[in-house]
Design brief:
Elements (H helix, E strand, L loop, with lengths): L1 H34 L3 E10 L5 E12 L3 E3 L5 H7 L2 H16 L6 E5 L2 H5 L3 H12 L6 E5 L2 H4 L2 H14 L2 E7 L5 H7 L4 E4 L1 H4 L5 H17 L2 E5 L4 H10 L3 E3 L7 E2 H11 L3
Parallel strand pairs: 2-4, 4-5, 5-6, 6-7, 7-8, 8-9
Antiparallel strand pairs: 1-2, 1-9, 1-10, 2-3
The chain binds ligand C2E and calcium ion (3 copies).
The site of one calcium ion has 4 residues, from loops.
Protein name: EAL domain-containing protein
Organism: Plantimonas leprariae
Length: about 270
């Protein structure tokens, strides 16, 4: 039994070693990506349900890796957060989204903020500087944050949110419903928008999900917050959401995330003044 135990331990160590090595390589690669400008933003339309017009876009980061092709954010954001590389990456995302957003007058630009960025002291100053530098009107910038941001230090988070709002930017609660005490958070933080997570939308044929989505929309209405549903893939889902009074939608049914040039084309053909 003793030998057996050692064997297991050795295999485990070898496995950990490989994992460490793989992570080290990925971290090195990420640093190179930053230096070599291998990141790019794709933009997905946010659509008003009322008239199906594009009213904004969400910036979603991708990594154009020289050999691995287009790498999705879920494959590198977690390590970027662990290593702190999310700070320079996140700053690049914000600056690029604000600059590129200037090409689409009248559209809001939504940018995802990592909890790691959020805890960083200079966040508010950075946002202010980037707005000034790019000339994007603050009302056109929407910062998407998740519950993770609020969980650890509620007082500090409220202070940061208040100072961000004082700049004039909007704040959206992302992935709503996937965490623990979302309801309490809605009450005590100054959100402008609730984003209903796509897991509830893909499940809309189930009675329970219908009830949840319906009550989140009602909650948004009574708290005077805009509600947006993400991951809308079918006309049926869209008409359910319209019927229930959801104001905005985002999803493959209305448009996938696309590179800048394609979004510009889309905006030119479908957005009327
Ligand atoms: P998220 O903020 O919840 O973004 C929505 C995700 O759902 C995006 O995946 C989008 O492409 C995908 N999506 C949109 N419509 C549909 C649909 O109809 N069906 C389905 N199945 N999926 C849809 P993506 O681009 O792979 O991003 C994944 C996550 O990575 C994002 O989730 C966000 O948490 C994170 N992320 C993306 N860009 C950034 C960034 O610049 N900074 C940070 N910190 N995180 C980012
Ligand atoms: Ca988001
Ligand atoms: Ca989500
Ligand atoms: Ca998310």
């Amino acid at each position: 039994a003793k030998e057996n135990g050692r064997g297991v331990a050795r295999v485990f160590e070898a496995h950990m070693g490989m994992e460490r090595e793989a992570r080290r390589l990925l971290e090195q690669d990420l640093k190179q990506a930053l230096a070599g400008s291998e990141f790019e933003l794709h933009y997905q339309p946010l659509v008003a349900l009322e008239d199906e017009r594009i009213i904004g876009v969400e910036a979603l980061v991708r990594w154009r890796h020289p050999s691995r092709g287009l790498v999705p954010p879920n494959d590198f954001i977690p390590l970027a957060e662990e290593t702190g590389l999310i700070l320079p990456i996140g700053e690049w995302v914000l600056r690029t989204a604000c600059r590129q957003g200037m090409q689409w007058p009248g559209l809001t630009v939504a940018v995802n903020l990592s909890p790691v960025q959020f805890k960083h002291r200079d966040l508010v100053a950075m946002v202010g500087e980037i707005l000034e530098e790019t000339g994007l009107r603050p009302e056109r910038l929407e910062l998407e944050i998740t519950e993770g941001v609020l969980m650890h230090d509620g007082a500090a988070a409220r202070d940061t949110l208040t100072r961000l709002k004082a700049l004039g930017v909007r704040i959206a609660m992302d992935d709503f419903g996937t965490g623990y005490s979302s309801l309490g958070y809605l009450n005590s933080f100054p959100f402008d928008k609730i984003k209903i997570d796509k897991s509830f939308i893909s499940d809309l044929s189930a009675e329970k999900s219908n009830a949840i989505v319906r009550s989140v929309i009602g909650l948004g209405q009574s708290l005077d917050m805009v509600t947006i549903a993400e991951g809308v893939e079918t006309a049926e889902q869209a008409s359910f959401l319209r019927r229930e009074g959801c104001q905005q939608v985002q999803g493959y049914h209305f448009g996938r995330p696309v590179p800048v040039a394609q979004l510009t084309e889309l905006v030119a053909t479908v957005v009327r003044p």
